[in-house]
Design brief:
- This protein is mainly alpha-helical.
- It has a domain at 33-94.
- It is built from four helices and two strands, in the order E-E-H-H-H-H.
- The chain has helices at residues 17-23, 35-45, 49-75, 84-93; strands at 2-5, 8-11.
- Strands 1-2 form a two-stranded antiparallel ribbon.
- The longest helix has 27 residues, at 49-75.
- It is elongated and about 50 Å long.
- Residues 1-15 have low confidence and may be disordered.
């Protein structure tokens, strides 16, 4: 499902990555990898090597962004840090 918001297109993350990557603006890069290993993984997963690399980079970027958000929250003095016990208590209230 696509939703247009200003200059950004929001894509349903349930869709396969090879569908939503074509919709979003893309950056091209060139890398050299061990061809045999990549082809073995591609055969097992029934994906093309290009799709495997693209998905791996997309996951890496998403993880990086999650880490940046977590770091910003840790550095925010107005955002209180709670103990694991307090977190469990709050989650139990919901």
């Amino acid at each position: 499902m696509l939703e247009q918001s200003g200059s950004f297109t929001h894509v349903d993350p349930i869709q396969p990555a090879d569908q939503w990557s074509r919709i979003q603006p893309m950056t091209s890069i060139s890398i050299d990898l061990a061809d045999a290993t990549l082809r073995e993984i591609a055969e097992v997963t029934a994906e093309t090597p290009n799709t495997l690399i693209r998905r791996a980079v997309e996951e890496l970027v998403a993880d990086y962004m999650d880490g940046r958000i977590a770091r910003q929250r840790l550095d925010d003095p107005s955002d209180a840090i709670i103990s694991p016990a307090e977190l469990r208590r709050r989650l139990a209230e919901d």
